[in-house]
Write a structure and sequence with these properties.
This protein is of the alpha/beta class and 328 residues long. It folds into 2 domains: 214 residues, Rossmann fold; 67 residues, 2-Layer Sandwich (Alpha-Beta Plaits), CATH 3.30.70. 33% of the residues lie in helices and 27% in strands. The strands form 3 sheets. The protein has a 6-stranded mixed beta sheet with strand order 6-7-8-3-9-10, with helices on both faces. A 4-stranded antiparallel beta sheet has the order 2-1-4-5, covered by helices on one side. Helix 6 links the parallel strand 7 and strand 8. Helix 3 crosses helix 4 and helix 4 crosses helix 5. The structure holds adenosine-5'-triphosphate (ATP) and magnesium ion. Adenosine-5'-triphosphate binds next to strand 2 and helix 1.
Amino acid sequence: MNDNPLRLNEQAPSAAPPIPAVQTHALSRAYGSMTALSNLDLTVHRADLFGFIGSNGAGKTTTLRILATFLTPSSGRAEVLGHDVVRDADRVRHLIGYMPDFFGVYKDMEVTEYLDFFGACYKIPAAVREKTVADVLELVGLTEKRGALIGALSRGMQQRLGLARVLIHDPQLLLLDEPASGLDPRARIEMMAILQELQRMGKTIIISSHILSELQTLCNRCAIIEKGRLIYSGPVQGVRADSQVGRVFRARVSTDPGRALELLRARPEVIEAHEEDGRLRVTVRDDHADAGLVAETLVRGGARLVELREEELGLEEVFLRVTKGETQ
Ligand SMILES: Nc1ncnc2c1ncn2[C@@H]1O[C@H](COP(=O)(O)OP(=O)(O)OP(=O)(O)O)[C@@H](O)[C@H]1O
Ligand SMILES: [Mg+2]
C-alpha cells in the first residue's frame, strides 16, 4: 500500500546545506610590514551569538572592519551570507550592522532626528521611517528619550543609541566591536539582555570583547585570537576541554608542605605545584590524571592529607593560560 498521508519515513527533499553567516578563508591583513591578521579561517553560523575574544592588538577590530567592508584584506577572502566582502561590498553593507569601537555622536542632534537621518541614508521610505525609528528605540529601551539631545544622554544610553542606529535597516548580521566597553555593570547587563533578545529574533551577532566572564554566559560559540592567529573556534564550553590547560586541585596537608610539593612535582602527570594561601595548588594533565593521583601521591609519600578539592576554571582563567599575553 502506497498510502502514507503523513509521509512518515520519507526523506525530506534534499536541501542545500545552510549558508554560514560568516566564513573567512586564510584571511590576512598587513599594515605596512606589520601582519595584523594571519590566515584566519573562521565560520560563524546563522543565529549564533558569537564571542570574538582576544587581547589588545590581537586583530579583532581589523577582522570586523574587513567584514564590514571598511578595510580590504591583504590576502584570503571573507564572505557574509555567501557574498564576498570585496566583490559584493554593496550587498554586504545592506546585510550587516557595524557598530565600531569608537563612534562619533552628533551631540546637538535629537535622538529621533539622528535615527531618522540614518534611516534615510539606507533609503527607508519616509512613510515607514517613523515606525522603524520607534521600533528600534523600543528595542533598545530608549523610547522615553526620543526627544532628548544626544549630548544629554548618559554613556550607556549613547551606546544603546549606537546599537539602535545599526538596527535601523534590519540587518541580518550585527558586528559589534566592544559594545559594552565603558559601561557600568547595570548598563552592561542591560546591553547583554538586548543582544539576547536580538538573537531570539534570529539575528546573527558577533561581539568582540576581552571581558570573558561576560561572554561565557552570553555566547553560544566563540573564537579566540592572539597576534592575528586563531587559537580556538567552537562552542564556548569547548574552550576548556580543547585548551589542555590541565585540571587544578587544591590540597591541604598537616605534614611538611615542602615535602608534599616535592612528591607531587616528581610525578610526570603534574604540570606544576606550589603553595598558596596555606594550601597546595596542583595542576595535572587533563588526559589521565584526577584527584586520585594527587591523593595517592601524597599519602604513599607519607603526607597527611586533610583536604582535597578540584578548582573550576572559568573562561577567563583558561584564556589567560592559552594566550601568552603577547601584544604586537
Ligand atoms: N591603521 C593601522 N595602521 C597600522 N597598524 C594598525 C592599524 N590598525 C591596527 N593596527 C595594528 O594591527 C594590530 C591589530 O589591531 P586591532 O585594532 O585589529 O586589534 P584589536 O584586537 O581590536 O585590539 P583592541 O582590543 O585593543 O581593540 C595591532 O598591532 C595594531 O597596532
Ligand atoms: Mg579593537
